[in-house]
Amino acid sequence: MRRVVTLVLALLCLTTALVAGATTVTTGDAADAAEAAASNRGAASAYDTRLGPGECRLTGRVYVPGRGCSRDRCVPGSTLWKFGTDAELCEQRGRKGDIWAQPIAKPRCERLGRVWLAQINACASNPDRARTRMRDVPQCTDRRATYLNHAETEGSYDECLSPRKVRVWSRAARKEGTTLARVALERGRANCAYRGGFVMVDGLCTERQGPPAEPGGVVLIGDSVSWRAQDELAPREPDWVLDSKPGRRLDELGTRLDWMRAEHGEPDAVIVQLGTNHRRGYSEADFDATLATLPADVPVMFLLPYRERTPGNASQVRATRTYAGWIAAAADQRPLTCLADWPSYAAKHKSRLVDGAHPRASAEEWYARYVVRQWNACGSQLGR
After folding, report:
1. Which end of the chain is less enclosed by CB atoms within 10 A, N or C?
2. What is the spatial distance between Cα 126 and Cα 33, in angstroms, rounded to a whole number?
3. pTM, two decimal places
4. pLDDT tens sequence across 86-107
5. What CATH topology corresponds to 2-39+214-382?
6. Helices (H) and strands (E) in the chain, counts
């Protein structure tokens, strides 16, 4: 009964514009019809022709000359880890093995000295976790660099160090009686910049004292749907904080807002693109409590989640629709809140989705335009 009520509230919220509460944003794009034919048909093939031999190898997959990068065959010692989303990826078998690429944003990947795989929106990662340091590996943009294994987690990602840094930091490690990896994490700017609440002081990554230097800003918190369009969103909205990651769930909204506050201060506005992924045990009350932590004068736009029904995903579709209902109901009660009706828009452009949820590689620019367009319309309707 509660689910029925929730869905009814969602329907009402999606079709009614309220001044004090949620405003449903509905705008069109004249170029959409003309661009529909440009969707990436390669996903239907057994081979991905977008990746060359070197790029294919960095995903752990087999390259077949004259055909392309196999979508379902991995190099010896690896097995398929991710399949069917136009971003196939393999993982090295064994306890000391890992996936061949990580969901690290392009700017961060490049600062770490690693190769960015634009075709699958991922940062090349060395899957051999048995060794802490390696030389002459293809994951580094400079083959003279030393690849350091860290933890591949926020603020502790693997990095490629120049020969000079290796010499200088190795001397420091010997002097301090510690490891090169530890010194790199203590002195490396690339990882420190993404360790919430930490800054570089006198060459060391140190917990920041006082408020952020540049507080506020617009933050977009999302999952793999918006993650795929980060490269396209960044030049369009260079002042936005883009915080999307594959696999992220609605229950992680609170921790990401905490990170934003630690790193940038209270946001000036929030765009939320979550709800595609299911989290058992997470309740509507939990979601409402997280939303209540945002000051009432902070504008919020929710991109309602969408997942097309396909064989075997009925439970995921139900969860996504439930989350959409929660979002719509909560937004209806909150001032300065907009809803972008992504489900209706996506359902009209299914050819642009690779798996009923994510934009194809060729549609990432289209999706980025949609997000910016909705945000601008939201601002107009809220009087920003």
Report:
1. N
2. 41
3. 0.78
4. 889 999 998 888 999 999 989 9
5. Rossmann fold (3.40.50)
6. 14, 19
